[in-house]
Amino acid sequence: MKLETTFHPSTPHILIEGGIEFHLGKKKGDTILYDFPKMLRYLDAKGKLLFGKKFKIHEEDHEILYQLCVYFIKDEISCEKFNIDPNKGIMLSGPVGCGKTTLMKLLRHLVPHHRPYEIIPTRNIVFGFNNLGYSIIEQYGNSNFYCFDDLGVEPEGKHFGKDCNVMGEILLSRHELFTQCPPERSQRAEQPVLSLSKGSRRTVPKQPALSGVEVSKGSRRTTHITTNLNAEEIEERYGNRVRSRLREMVNVIGFDKNTKDKRK
Hints:
The chain is of the alpha/beta class. It has helices at 36-51, 62-72, 76-81, 100-107, 122-132, 135-140, 166-180, 231-238, 240-249; strands spanning 6-8, 11-17, 20-23, 25-28, 31-35, 89-93, 118-121, 146-151, 157-159, 162-164, 199-203, 223-227, 250-254. The chain has a single domain (6-254), classed as P-loop containing nucleotide triphosphate hydrolases (Rossmann fold, 3-Layer(aba) Sandwich), CATH 3.40.50.300. It contains nine helices and 13 strands. The chain has a five-stranded parallel beta sheet. A three-stranded antiparallel beta sheet has the order 1-2-3, with helices on one face.
């Protein structure tokens, strides 16, 4: 089954899955009025295509999904209310099985006109380092957009008898790249607002900017992360230097520590 999301550049709020159109809102002039319940219906349908018929959007996850939707559509006014910086990445934290990886795999389909990120398990990165060495750090410390999945479960790296905190080194490299470029400034006449109950307003850039998958030289390279670790555990595992730089690179959005394991 073909799982690619398609859309027309002039109407990125209308997503097509298997010939079925999903309207995430409506367009009025140069603005799109996004509707959160419609976004949830699309995510539920897309999730079933990606993960099987048993997939469901849990009502207790709506609050986190709302914040993530606000971030992904770059709703700057609502982002500010949640203390989210749309120029940073996302660190989605929470207990085992709460759905972090699933949501990060799913939400990138919500905005196919934005540059996609690749989801890489941190264990695979370390296994690559053990075989290939420091070229792996250069590979993932580059300008591509990544989501590093399950930060903290990976073992210590070892190459030719030398130990290395591989993910710590990669995150330091990506921080350096992140700070080399200034944050993007909105040039929109209006700012978007997303409502839980009604539509939301989001300004659409004039064409051809809506194609949106190309990144200019001045764009910040985004890093997303999923992890079971809290801030103190991240510092213990990777050091204060990495913890400090993560504060600059990512917005922390977390599931409640008592969230149930959805795999059970």
